[in-house]
Amino acid sequence: MNIAAIFADWGTTNRRAWAVDRAGSVLDRRQDDHGLLGVKDRAFETSFRDFVGNWLTQAPGTPILMAGMVGSKLGWREAPYVATPARFADLAQQMVELPPLDGHPIRIVPGLVCRASGTPDVMRGEETQLFGLWLQARTDRLCVLPGTHSKWAEIKGDGVAGFRTYMTGEVFANLSSTGTIAQLMRKDAPHDAGAFQRGLAASESQSAGGLLNRLFSARTLGLFAELPGEAIASYLSGLLIGAELREALSGGAPAQPIAVIGSARMNALYLEGLALMGAKAEAIDGDTLLRPALLELGRQSRLM
Amino acid sequence: MNIAAIFADWGTTNRRAWAVDRAGSVLDRRQDDHGLLGVKDRAFETSFRDFVGNWLTQAPGTPILMAGMVGSKLGWREAPYVATPARFADLAQQMVELPPLDGHPIRIVPGLVCRASGTPDVMRGEETQLFGLWLQARTDRLCVLPGTHSKWAEIKGDGVAGFRTYMTGEVFANLSSTGTIAQLMRKDAPHDAGAFQRGLAASESQSAGGLLNRLFSARTLGLFAELPGEAIASYLSGLLIGAELREALSGGAPAQPIAVIGSARMNALYLEGLALMGAKAEAIDGDTLLRPALLELGRQSRLM
Hints:
2 copies of one chain form a homodimer.
Chain A: E1 5-10, E2 15-20, E3 26-32, H1 44-58, E4 64-67, E5 82-83, E6 86-87, H2 88-93, E7 96-101, E8 104-108, E9 112-114, E10 121-123, H3 126-137, E11 141-145, E12 150-156, E13 159-166, H4 168-177, H5 193-202, H6 208-223, H7 232-248, E14 258-262, H8 264-276, E15 281-285, H9 287-300
Parallel strand pairs in A: 1-4, 4-8, 5-9, 11-14, 14-15
Antiparallel strand pairs in A: 1-2, 2-3, 6-13, 7-8, 9-10, 11-12, 12-13
């Protein structure tokens, strides 16, 4: 193997790494659940060596590029946020340099902070995926990265103009795990398209308080057997994703299809919702964007 | 003791009971945490006998009147919901009769269902408090009963015209117990009036999706040390209660002060929020309303 670099995405609950050649092609890959939260006494060096050790010995001196929560306060080293509007070129320039690991230079990609609303909004990891998307076509684009914290970001010119986070996924996970809605929910049930669409419809014209009221319908429809336990998760998902989509599209849907960047499962839900709201959208596998972005960051910083 | 009746409020997590005389004055009281969820194999009879046994033997044949979740599917016996608009007289007429317990007649007050929004909304226990309030003055009144599930109800004429539930308390409890906001929150901190007001202000003009976005500020303000961990719970509380109040007042505040019926702690928060939004309100201790209502229900049903 001609390993030219090691790329990693080290998050709070799991991590992934790729050994790549000079062209960024994957030579080997690794994945485990040793997220940052599981690293005791901040022993990140040891933990990372255990993870990719033989790559390090096989290719002495090759650079390590990392993105994600590894650059947060609770990560290996804090990589200060770059403020929006941010140029993609700022990412390479503001990568944080760590002391070499066994002779391998290490860099962590900074996150972004957006203060457009008056309070800070942040991302870590998504900025690298956005850069990967931009490298493909270099066009302005409205993007959504669904997840625990869904991010809506606007690519404009050669950078990210701004973004907003929605806690949709976390609120869904919380309400699905404990409480009076979770009690009635069959959690292992497959996606129910009808219930999801019913939830999306119920999100229409709701104020913030209206959402706190509508959420209760996920319980009462179950209580009255007007929604089977198997359908409650899909209904709740539609209600929350619908609220997010309506807010994100409140200024009107863009002419260019919205880039939906996430897992296949989440992308399908967002595409379904966006289609019902008359917005054009294109699903993009988030995994395909990270490596080209890290490759380009490695080149721009003359590490590769 | 001249016990004339036994009143009880048996909820999911705890229960209270009062031995009262013919005038409804309290002769003895009892309270424990044997909520309905803790009763095994539906042994409600045994559980209730253990709770108030010596009252039963002291005053043979006296009636037992109960309100709350004891009348739900998971309770002792389901008392079908009365549909709004509902007259208070319907409560006495539609109480559910159980087989006597050791010679004591038992009745459970029905809950209410409101279908004004198209989906069912329900209450159990609050209808009895609303009846207690109405008995005091017999006037039309907008009422809020804060709690895990906050209820906004409209007393009109001689009954409840309709109501809406907001999951404000449950969403607050969920986000405060696990997840990325809870991580930064100092949970034992005292109420922070400034942070509560900041949260109330942040709830202004938010759509349903806007709330999912604004919730993230409870995390990021903490991350950026713009809000100390001790203040995050109060901020989140202001954000959620603010959203509820704005929706509930979206049709304009009533001329008559809003009746805020709950615990001293919750009443104080709602009064603070309502005052900031320019709505007149009056705090009423929810506990003072239940017994007069049960007394009147006992009389109307000729049990007392």
